[in-house]
Amino acid sequence: MTDRYAVIGNPVAHSKSPQIHAAFAQETGEDIEYGRLLAPLEGFSDAVKQFRAAGGRGLNVTVPFKEEAYRLATLHSERARIAEAVNTLRFDAGALYGDNTDGAGLVRDIRDNLGVAIAGRRILLLGAGGAARGVIAPLLAEDPKDLTIANRTLERAEALERHFAPRVRASAYAALSGSRFDIVVNATSASLAGALPPLPRVVFAAGSLAYDMMYGRGLTPFLEWARGQGAGLTADGLGMLIEQAAESFFVWRGIRPRTATVLASLRAA
Ligand code: NDP
């Protein structure tokens, strides 16, 4: 019997996950079906239970339910526990297993797809929401020289500084003026609104990368800004999306799909 999965969120109509997982299923020969599930803002838990009761095997969780999914899961991976956010649910016998594959997706995209080393580099992470939280531990595991987090609401960055002490430093945007970085990752939702975080002048070191987790048509305001500041390479979050999906597929099916073809075809589209 075909195993059923879906992405749950609100909104969810824009999600490319069904397309990506259909390609993975075809490539690996796994017999799965993957759809979209729009959950009411106050009805996440009921929607998960109904999907499970109807025979569903697992879910990807997107905006704005990742933290609620963390609370709903009865068993967590180490990386979900650190992030306190879940983007992958698996329905096991007797347990609702919660994992977070966003960080692994970002690291694979930067390191393997873009060929940019993280080890020994100076990293600036913009934002302190769910997406930022999910990528900190996987970035630190790559052994960067240092990791600075800037956020509009400074207290949220300071909370992350305490959580990951002593390996992370919090900063107000204005205090970054003149600092030098090798990799700058935009994990804010500013690009969704066509906005730019209040960034001062920073220095992009030689061979540096500016990465926006948001993806879509053309350059985001952040990537435009980064080019103006001298970033060597710019990338949007499409590769991260595909890599986190591959990692979720592995969590569910125990098989890691190849990602290059899907990435190339979504880029072309
Ligand atoms: P959250 O709502 O949890 O956090 C939003 C963050 O953005 C906060 O730090 C907030 O700051 C900041 N922010 C929002 N607007 C502005 C602005 N105008 N200027 C400066 N900072 C701003 O969102 P998520 O963390 O879940 O998602 C962030 C982004 O990452 C989204 O665009 C999402 O689509 C993308 N994403 C992409 C993935 C991929 O696979 N490519 C995976 C996961 C997320 P404050 O705390 O001050 O409110």
Task: Give the secondary structure arrangement, pairings included.
Blueprint: E1 3-9, H1 17-28, E2 32-38, H2 44-53, E3 56-61, H3 66-72, E4 75-76, H4 78-83, E5 88-92, E6 95-99, H5 102-113, E7 122-126, H6 130-141, E8 146-150, H7 154-163, E9 168-171, E10 180-186, E11 203-212, H8 221-228, E12 233-235, H9 238-253, H10 260-268
Parallel strand pairs: 1-2, 1-3, 4-6, 7-8, 7-10, 8-9, 10-11, 11-12
Antiparallel strand pairs: 3-5, 5-6
Helix pairs in contact: 1-9, 5-6, 5-9
The chain binds NADPH dihydro-nicotinamide-adenine-dinucleotide phosphate (NDP).
What does this molecule look like?
The structure is a single chain. This protein is of the alpha/beta class. It has two domains: 3-100 and 244-257, Rossmann fold (3-Layer(aba) Sandwich), CATH 3.40.50; 103-239, Rossmann fold. 38% of the residues lie in helices and 25% in strands. The protein has ten helices and twelve strands. Strands 2-1-3-5-6-4 form a six-stranded mixed β-sheet, with helices on both faces. Strands 9-8-7-10-11-12 form a six-stranded parallel β-sheet. Helix 1 (17-28) packs across helix 9, helix 5 packs across helix 6 and helix 5 (102-113) crosses helix 9. The chain starts with a strand and ends with a helix. Residues 63, 102, 105, 127-132, 151-153, 156, 187-192, 195, 197, 213-215, 237, 240-241, 244 line the site of NADPH dihydro-nicotinamide-adenine-dinucleotide phosphate.
